[in-house]
Amino acid sequence: MSAANPKVIDIKDRSGITTQPLPGSEKIYITGSRDDIRVPFRQISLTDTPNRDPNLPGEPNAPVMVYDTSGIYTDTTETIDLEKGLTPIRQQWIEERDDTEVLPAFSSNFTRDQDGLEFDIPLFTNRRLPRKAKPGKNVSQMHYARQGIITPEMEYIAIRESMGRAALQAKGELPADKPNHITPEFVRKEVAEGRAIIPANVNHPEAEPMIIGRNFLVKINANIGNSATTSSIEEEVEKMVWSTRWGGDTVMDLSTGKHIHQTREWIIRNSPVPIGTVPLYQALEKVNGIAEDLTWEVFRDTLIEQAEQGVSYFTIHAGIRLAHIPLTVNRTTGIVSRGGSIMAAWCLAHHEESFLYTHFEDICEIMKAYDVSFSLGDGLRPGSQADANDEAQFAELRTLGELTHIAWKHDVQVMIEGPGHVPMHKIKENMDLQLEVCHEAPFYTLGPLVTDIAPGYDHITSGIGAAMIGWFGTAMLCYVTPKEHLGLPNKDDVKVGIITYKIAAHAADLAKGHPGAHERDDAISKARFEFRWEDQFNLGLDPDTARAFHDETLPQPKAKVAHFCSMCGPKFCSMKISHDVKEAFAEKSEEFKAGGSKIYHQI
Amino acid sequence: MSAANPKVIDIKDRSGITTQPLPGSEKIYITGSRDDIRVPFRQISLTDTPNRDPNLPGEPNAPVMVYDTSGIYTDTTETIDLEKGLTPIRQQWIEERDDTEVLPAFSSNFTRDQDGLEFDIPLFTNRRLPRKAKPGKNVSQMHYARQGIITPEMEYIAIRESMGRAALQAKGELPADKPNHITPEFVRKEVAEGRAIIPANVNHPEAEPMIIGRNFLVKINANIGNSATTSSIEEEVEKMVWSTRWGGDTVMDLSTGKHIHQTREWIIRNSPVPIGTVPLYQALEKVNGIAEDLTWEVFRDTLIEQAEQGVSYFTIHAGIRLAHIPLTVNRTTGIVSRGGSIMAAWCLAHHEESFLYTHFEDICEIMKAYDVSFSLGDGLRPGSQADANDEAQFAELRTLGELTHIAWKHDVQVMIEGPGHVPMHKIKENMDLQLEVCHEAPFYTLGPLVTDIAPGYDHITSGIGAAMIGWFGTAMLCYVTPKEHLGLPNKDDVKVGIITYKIAAHAADLAKGHPGAHERDDAISKARFEFRWEDQFNLGLDPDTARAFHDETLPQPKAKVAHFCSMCGPKFCSMKISHDVKEAFAEKSEEFKAGGSKIYHQI
Asked: Which of A172, B128, B346, B469 gives a 20 to 30 Å CA spacing to A478?
């Protein structure tokens, strides 16, 4: 690593990092009970509703505030310096709790070994020493919640989830027509009871607090990460920024190629959202890809390595037991989870229960010392419609329920991963059984894909299942890109995957009746009906694409106020005619009523 | 029109028409009880499952047969001549019924007037004279069905819907493991009882018979048509061919620009699928776009004009009554159906019930003379989540139920159009109410879109709702393209819309347990698990895109047999490891069983 390395300069000038606000939008902050609880939102400015008489002023439309995952990358008042990393906004809160200490050195052997090596890639040099619970302490948000403590993270989340209503409520300024049940105390209670998790490693103080639970907004996760065949560090950092720009609530770094440790450092230090990983992937790299050579010691060191970097949740496939493996051999698609197949191979090679299962309480001890949450992996999820809801899948799910109880005994936060490929009529059974056997721990599903026959469009096959299972109660949806089953997604694929999953999550919020979820729909529909084209674009999930599609056939500036688009042309726009009808009705109904007609009330 | 017109040559050399079979596929035909019942299917050839020992032969995989809407355009043995039009495969059946006659001239004043004009566009010259029921005769498929007659169309459909099983059954050759309830008699009964329609105008004998009903495969419709701002005849013909190539079961020609009549002739004469229209659009063109100038006479002439060209179903917004209009004035998005807004404007201007409603039985007389089916339009469908399931929408739906009874009195086939924009939790109410008040007439829905906030992605917002409502019982799904709300779709948009809706329809077929629907899923999943990449591409809904996505990162020919893709790389492919696990299990389980171990059966 040297200053002359051109890749360092690439990172420094961040030419490849997307940093502008979304069109028509600016970052605003709502402050909580203390000045350092500053909750970000994206505020979308709207134009006036035009007056029918162009000489009269229009009627103003209030700006619309939306949940914002994009961090300071969309804040024009902030300076972005990837080499420095983001401001550790939670550091003060963590220090005030006085239950952690900064270690004199990294605890992982692997980390220390890596620090002695030379690399031909840029390294993140502004690293902090790791923080860990003081001996005997448990620093999980669940632990605090169960003590009755409302942490600043919880208050932050209450403001964020209630679109600022919790802050108004605390100040006694909440409008009567906008009630709010998402108080800091409600957040605490949901976490205490295990129905929600706050993934918030003490070593990722840069992350903006967020919550995953079915009584909150449905979240989405974007997977990034290189594989042996393609991709670079710069691309991965930009994929994280890009993912959060479009609405990714968490990002999983699933890298399996070279320099996993160094890439992750860059990502975490610059990420405003919690990062999840599957530690097994890196552990397997450490034993040269030979599953049977995996050991508890290698795995344990990997957990510590990643916990001290700041990973906030670990996918751990501890639910695969030796006895489950025979249930998979006659499946159409066997075991399709990478972690699942690796652990199954290990179990068979050693003819033992997996070290993830036998060392589960040891893992809990690590998790609670850094506040890493479990994402208990569904290693036996179905990889085809034919295998959906089979004995293998549900046997593992029951084991995950048992492990949830053990984790909770340690006050360690847990979510449960779910399928996979499931036809629509079998989706609800997944949700219902998960709630029952996993004691309402949050469900975190991949899709599910409702058919197998559309490679190239699996963001859609899975988006259908995701919307449905989100409505039924899934707390977080893991996105699927158009490249699923075919190759590693590029930036465009990541965006399409995210937008598809924002649609699924928002549709679920609407169907669940999440307070305020419909406000954005109402605003965009009003804009649409009033031909405020720019507002329609800006209120959408992807203003750039909406504008580009519109302009493909009508690029002229005046088309942005026209009362039609190229779909129907000027004479055939129903909404234009509908305005005329509305006006005519106002006139005619008076006229007809005066004439004694009752026809409008006949049916 | 002259031979020197270069546009005629454009059509003749059909350089812009897509005519190759899909990759790995060939057209096959299954013959019914008579030689001229030749039902087309696409047969996808598969490669062998490789043997673990590369010196031994692989295990063959039977070809997979799928429903095929693409007509002769994908049949390499056929000659395509757009100027001649397709072979009228139903003509003999229609003539044998001896209840129609060929008229000496077109009945519509408009058609006769047009025939006297000169045009600067190519005209379809190989036109037939129109056919119509003999006086007093009713030529609808429903009429035959109610007489107990199984038409060749019904037998054709039984073979098509049962993937050939009905033909085997008739010959006594049906395998015991593949039962079939979709017999010709079942088709007849469903049509007789109004639960299904066969859109089959006697003037479109070129169309391959198909059925729309909830006890059959879920169908999809693609909308094409020019508008005043863009598009040409050649593009519209190709859009029809393109739509059917990717799986459009019917095509609606929604043209509102110039030369609607002439464009439609080209489309119908070359279309293997039934064509639907909204006659009101053309009627409005005839009165220069002024809704209040519409008259029953203009509308009636338009119905006859289009019926004699061969349109198989008409969207008719007869359910909008004067009394419904006040219910729409306080809506967020008013009236968003073009036909609905036009008729509302007419009703208000005249302060009368619409001529569609008052002349409904006159319309029935026209429909039964050509066998045109009703698609009763939902002029008051909600255009936003806020307006979903409101009084206006359901009041109109009840009126459509009343009209269904009237049409059935005339043995005229009916389907009912449905919404629109509806959040997930309100979708089922739509389906249940439609079945109840419309007496199980087939439902034909546009989406519904489950959120309003994603312009540019409304194929997805609506695909979610479409899959769900298809599962609940909707018989045909009207596609939505990514350009919805923004502009006129181009060819790429049409394809994306179709594939999205094929996904929704197929997911619904799976969830409904349609016999055989899972066979394609099973075949593609087996191919995926066996790394038969080419088979995976070819079994998908869009082989071209799947292949292109795969090749983006791994274009080398050897990657097509590789046991990994760029997503996970060679060491991390779960399915590769899963094969090793399966093999290891086979070895080890014998070994362990011999040793007396019971561990595999412990849980």
From this structure: B469
| A149 shares contact with chain B (CB less than 8 Å) | no
Confidence of residue A490 (pLDDT cuts 50, 70, 90): confident
> Which phi and psi (to 5°) does residue B94 adopt?
-65, -45
Which of A350, A453, A488 to probe the B interface (max B CBs under 10 A)? A453
Amino acid at A566: S
For B77-151, where are the alpha helices, taking DSSP H only? 91-97, 109-115, 141-146
CA nearest A353 in B: which residue? B599
Torsions phi, psi for B96 (to 5 deg): -60, -30
Q: Is A381 annotated as a binding residue?
A: yes
ipTM of the complex: 0.94
Three-state SS string over A62-98 comes to: CCEEEECCCHHHHCCCCCCCCCCCCCCCCHHHHHHHC
Smallest Cα–Cα separation from A255: which of A242, A237, A273, A270? A237
> pLDDT digits over B178-190, tens only?
899 999 999 999 9
Instruction: Say if A60 is an interface residue toward chain B (CB within 8 Å).
Output: no
Partner-chain contact A334 B582, CB within 8 Å: yes
Residues 6+ apart with CB under 8 A from A564: A570, A572, A573, A576
- CB–CB contact A453 B229 (8 Å): no
Residues in B closer than 8 angstroms to A329, CB to CB, are 581-582, 585-586
Q: How wide is the angle at C-alpha B153 spanned by C-alphas B147 and B154, nearest 5°? A: 60
Q: Which residue of B has its CA nearest to A542?
A: B454
Residues of B in contact with A490 (CB under 8 A): 552
Q: Torsion angle, CA of A26/A27/A32/A36, rounded to 10 degrees? A: -150
Beta-carbon contacts of A378 under 8 Å, excluding residues fewer than 6 positions away, are A317, A319, A337, A340, A393, A396, A397, A400, A416, A417, A418, A419, A420
Domains defined along chain B, listed by start: 1-514 (3.20.20.540), 518-595 (no CATH)
Question: Has residue A236 got a pLDDT over 90?
Answer: no
For residue B414, list its beta bridge partners. B374
At A489, list the tokens: 């997604």
Q: Is A603 on the interface with B (CB under 8 A)?
A: yes
Joined together, the tokens standing for residue B354 give 């619409």
Closest-CA residue to B194 (of B506, B489, B406): B406
